[in-house]
Design a protein that fits this description.
The radius of gyration is 17 Å and the shape is globular. The strands form 2 sheets. It has a 6-stranded mixed sheet. A 4-stranded antiparallel sheet has the order 2-1-4-5, with helices on one face. Helices cover about 35% and strands about 30% of the residues. The protein is α/β, with parallel strands linked by helices. The chain has one domain: Rossmann fold, CATH 3.40.50.300. The longest helix has 16 residues.
Length: about 220
């Protein structure tokens, strides 16, 4: 079985008297150990799909199986448990807390999970992404690339099977963007499944498969 199995996924948002079909009968399989990208214009459904893949939302119709477990109809608490155990998130804006230093930001998922040895595990995650020397610096004291590496360390600290990266290079210069993508490729080679949303073809070129969305539907797929 694939790690991710989407079957006829529909997501409808009701805004006043208007119904918006954000996702329209999406079916997709993602194998364990894949690195794929999702592309499409604004309003194509990319963010909605990432929210569903990340167990931040539920489909209106259809089935979503993650590691052969149907998460489509789970409660909010059940979805939170799945997120904490299986998924790491990386965002365009890094989402680091400005008053905390880097290592404390990396520790946050461990605090939410009530896990021990938090400092040790956070430092190890920072060492894995080559940013341990900045452990006691606050976000404002780091470059964009350094902040994104801290965000990746935070995503890794729970040993997730899946990393979802939403425009992870959107705020970075070209050289730093490629450095971050090369690092994500390295993580993928270690067996972590990675799904990346991007607007940039050169960033998608770092992945082995690209899914193209338009108006909530898959309209094309490219394999490299």
């Amino acid at each position: 079985m694939p790690m991710i199995h989407l079957e006829n996924i529909v997501k409808i948002y009701v805004i006043g008297d208007t119904k918006v079909n954000a996702l329209d009968h999406i079916s997709l399989d993602i194998e364990a150990g894949e690195i794929i990208s999702i592309m499409g214009p604004s309003g194509s459904g990319k963010s909605t799909m990432m929210n569903l893949l990340g167990c931040l939302d539920r489909p209106t119709e259809g089935k979503y199986e993650l590691d052969s477990i149907d998460v489509s109809r789970m409660s909010d608490d059940e979805l939170a448990t799945v997120r904490n155990k299986k998924i790491g998130f990386v965002f365009q804006s890094y989402n680091l807390l400005p008053r905390l230093n880097a290592v404390m930001n990396v520790e946050l998922p461990l605090i939410y999970n009530g896990m021990g040895n938090r400092h040790k595990r956070a430092v190890e995650a920072m060492e894995a992404v080559g940013i341990a020397k900045r452990a006691h610096h606050k976000p404002s004291e780091m470059s964009g690339g350094e902040q994104q590496r801290v965000a990746i360390a935070r995503a890794l600290v729970n040993d997730p099977a899946l990393i979802l990266a939403d425009e992870p290079t959107g705020n970075l210069d070209t050289k730093t963007s490629h450095s971050i993508m090369e690092f994500l490729q390295e993580l993928n080679r270690k067996g972590i499944t990675i799904v990346i949303v991007t607007h940039e073809e050169d960033i998608a070129g770092y992945t082995k498969r690209t899914i193209y969305l338009r108006d909530g539907s898959i309209v094309n797929e490219k394999t490299r």
